[in-house]
Amino acid sequence: MKIGFHFPTRPLTLNEGPSPDLRPLLMIAEQAEEFGFDYLMAGDLVLTKLRSEALSILSACAARTKRIFLGTGVYLPLRRNPLLLAH
Questions:
Q1: How many Cα atoms within 13 Å fall on the side-chain side of residue 36?
Q2: Strand order in the sheet with 39-42
Q3: Which is it for strands 39-42 and 69-72: parallel, antiparallel or unpaired?
Q4: Which residues of the chain have pLDDT under 50?
Q5: Model pTM?
């Protein structure tokens, strides 16, 4: 059995300023790995609820963790610019 949880990415979009503070989410990722969680998932429903972009957040978390699995709960490529998605 694998145990993990869904990342709280929505509060980042509520912060004021041009760039959100990722430090709280990076700390969550590091602590989840320390506590033995197997995975973290980030939602990416960009049209229904305002959220930060999941792949960028997960990339930052990947740089700070070693073994925990990172993934998106929902990712709709048809709602993205194909060039940006390929990048």
A1: 2
A2: 4-6, 39-42, 69-72
A3: parallel
A4: none
A5: 0.75
